[in-house]
Amino acid sequence: MDDNAFTSVNMINHMYHLVSTFDLKPSMTILTYCSLALSSLGYDVLATDTAHVCDSVLRRNVSANIDHLPAEGAGTVQVRVLDWHVDSGAWAWHDPTDITSPTCSCEVSGTDVDEDILRPPFDLIVSSDTLYDASLIDPFFATLEALCVPRYNSKNPSTPAKYPLVLLTLERRDPALITTALARAPIPLSRVPNKKLKKALERMGIRWDSADWDGVEVWRGMAQPSIHGERG
Questions:
Q1: What distance, in Å, lies between the first and last C-alpha atoms of the chain?
Q2: Cα separation of 19 and 150, whole Å?
């Protein structure tokens, strides 16, 4: 199994096994499950959404279930607002609750930076069910492009920059909208075959009916040096 299918399926597998331990609420979202599953795999997770979702359900759901994660090896989960309509030049990564807060200054001294607050570069970016409205396509992809910051090896400057793997999961409810959106993606994307995902799930004892796969797609991609420019 390639790394993309493994990451996707491992995340789904952990979601399945963690559900039985969760304090389930009607408001539990796929973002909550995904964040907790990735954390259980050892990732430090930054979960982002609109201010309304973060304040009304996401923070509460993560807080209610974080203690159900493995005592050893689990990563952290931080919940912060990220408004796709705010230009990345105005983002405030030092803000612990709202990256795009209109009241937070982007300026911060080095001594005031909290090293525990997650910020780019990231190893993995997972987007779930974010392509559903034509008016949000360009703001979403502008945000994604800004997040694809390369990681450089400070000990060996000659080592090529490493860009985060992007996994884009979606349900093709509106085929025309999804096709249009994928054509406007700022990074090259390729679809992870459902056949590969299905076989990997079955190896873990998880079987989906054919109807469960209707419209379900996982796309993977990685930014190219031309997006951010390689360091000379």
A1: 35
A2: 34
- The pLDDT of residue 103: 73
Per residue in 159-176, pLDDT (tens digit) is 888 999 999 999 999 999
Q: Which of 41, 54, 46 is nearest to 125 (CA)?
A: 46
Q: Peptide bond before 70: cis, by omega within 30 degrees of 0?
A: no
Judge contact between 37 and 8, C-beta under 8 A: no
Alpha carbon 77 to chain centroid distance? 12
Closest CA to 45 of 87, 92, 88, 80: 80
Distance, C-alpha 1 to centroid of its chain: 21
Q: Can you name the residues that pair with 127 across neighbouring β-strands?
A: 168
Cα–Cα nearest to 79, from 94, 59, 64, 55: 59
* DSSP, residue by residue, 91-123: --TT-SSBTT-TTS-S---GGG--TTS--SS-S
- Distances, alpha carbon 14 to alpha carbons 64, 102, 110, 180, in Å: 17, 36, 38, 32
Q: What is the Cα–Cα distance from 85 to 117, expressed in whole angstroms?
A: 22
Q: How far apart are CA 77 and CA 118, in angstroms?
A: 9
Contact present, 151 and 161 (Cβ < 8 Å): yes
**Cα dihedral 11, 16, 20, 21 in deg (nearest 10):** 0
Model's pTM, two decimal places? Answer: 0.84
Look up residue 191 and give its two tokens: 């679809």
